[in-house]
Amino acid sequence: MVANLSPARQGPQHCPNASPDQQGHESLESIIIECDLYGLKQLRKGEILTSSSDRTPARPTLIMDADFNHRHNPIYNPPMDTDDFSARMLAWFDLHGRKNLPWQTERNPYRVWVSEIMLQQTQVTTVIPYFIRFMTRFPDVSSLAAARLDDVTAHWAGLGYYARARHLLLTAITLETQHDGEFPANLDTIQKLPGIGRSTAGAILSLGMNHRAAILDGNVKRVLCRFAGIEGWSGQASIDRQLWTLSEQLTPTIRVGDYTQAMMDLGAMVCTRSKPTCASCPLMAGCEAQTTARTHVIPAPRPKREMPTRRSFMLVLRNSNNEIFLETRPPTGIWASLKSLPEFDSLDGLKIWCAQRNINSTQMDVMPDRRHTFSHYHLNFTPVLCPVRAIHSVSENLHGGWFTSATMSSLPAPIRTLLAELDMEATRSTHLTIKS
Ligand code: SF4
Predict the structure, then answer these.
(1) How much is the pLDDT for 431?
(2) Fewest CB atoms within 10 A around its CB: which of 25, 145, 163, 277?
(3) Cα separations (Å) of 222 from 137, 151, 231, 287?
(4) CATH numbers and ranges of domains, the chain
(5) In this model, does residue 434 exceed pLDDT 70?
(6) Which residues are catalytic?
């Protein structure tokens, strides 16, 4: 199988119409040495490596012409067939790939799945402590399926995008009740599970079961866009389709798990968003963006769109025991099922709520606005601090209760930050009062 690379990479302009030094090689010997380095078939000088008989002849895999006398073409870009591509990636992975991340030890589909979900929109360094805590509490599908939602969200608090935590629980329950607690070894079936897209399903199959399946996460998109010189925003449907086709064609039949990890690692460590270190990239010899000096424009960024802004008021009721009143949010919508401050669309609405509960709002302190940005809108919220003397000013109910900083859990990150700051201020002013 030969990769169906972009039109720009096909045709005679990519064959040897330039000298090796235009590609950063001083001689053919250096290219041969590079082939050796990456464990590729060694070429004799002047040898033309063509497609093997079982490959489509549509795109010959020319690597080198006999005499390098085509210096008129400024672009020398030897094409790379799928075998070359994966061989280079695997050789690079053996030397430089990451092999000791927590989810790579005792690797199984469950650990791969949880790590993949956590890594969506989140950096590896942030995920590591969360993953370790999560695995200690929920070591397998059964323990997760038996968990309460608030226990799962408590282990997720701070990672954001809480729908991911709900989907984890739902999927664990589905696996436990319908698939004997195991991931089915079938791409379509895995994709039907809550919160699992095509790329995550591919990662579970390839990394967790070593089954041949392609992935296309953000890092891999960037590598493939640059390698094949695909312009435009990768979120565009036509480009997404093109990238999936390419990813599927390039995925090898052996060492699929290592190859998948290699692609992820290359995107994270070498082919980074800004300033990719092409000199240390195993794909450099065939990379369109590098050869044409377009790594800074490929891939194109997501087109900018104006994000709407939502406004709200958060009531911080603090009683004389320095406890805060928190409510459990509804099971859908933002911060679903997490504990948070009572939220209102207007200051009047907040005051009415207080009046109905005999809370004196004359001592309210309307604090400066804060902003939290979700993926699709900004939330500008105004904290309103309201001291109450007695605990029974607001009765505890099914959805709400009083919490100290030590007993709070499952809070959205911006609310946790706000309450931590208020707690610190309260502690400081207590100290000042005692001193004076
Ligand atoms: S050569 Fe550079 S741009 Fe091309 S894939 Fe490698 S790191 Fe990315």
Answers:
(1) 58
(2) 277
(3) 35, 36, 11, 12
(4) 7-79 (no CATH), 102-291 (1.10.340.30), 309-435 (3.90.79.10)
(5) no
(6) 116
Ligand 1 centroid vs 212 CA: distance in angstroms? 24
Q: Does ligand 1 have an atom closer than 6 angstroms to the CB of 269?
A: no
Is 227 close to ligand 1, i.e. is its CB under 6 Å away?
yes
Distance 86 CA to ligand 1 centre (A): 15
Please check the confidence at residue 331 and state whether its pLDDT lies above 50: yes
| Statement: residue 346 has pLDDT above 80 | yes
Q: How confident is the model at residue 54 (pLDDT cuts 50, 70, 90)?
A: very low
Q: Give me the percent of the chain exceeding a pLDDT of 90.
A: 55
Ligand 1, residues 23, 77, 290, 292: which to mutate, most atoms within 8 A of Cβ? 290
- Give residue 199 CA to ligand 1 midpoint distance, Å: 21
Q: What's this model's pTM, rounded to 2 decimal places?
A: 0.67
Centroid of ligand 1 to alpha carbon of 267 (angstroms): 9
Of the listed ranges 71-80, 183-192, 365-374, the one predicted with least confidence: 71-80
**CA pair distance 404, 411, nearest whole angstrom:** 13
> Does residue 65 have a pLDDT over 80?
no
Please indicate whether residue 224, judged by its CB atom, sits closer than 6 Å to ligand 1.
no
State if residue 114 touches ligand 1 by the CB under 6 angstroms criterion. Answer: no
pLDDT on residue 248? 95
Q: Which of 89, 271, 292 to mutate to test the pocket of ligand 1 (most atoms within 8 A of CB)?
A: 271
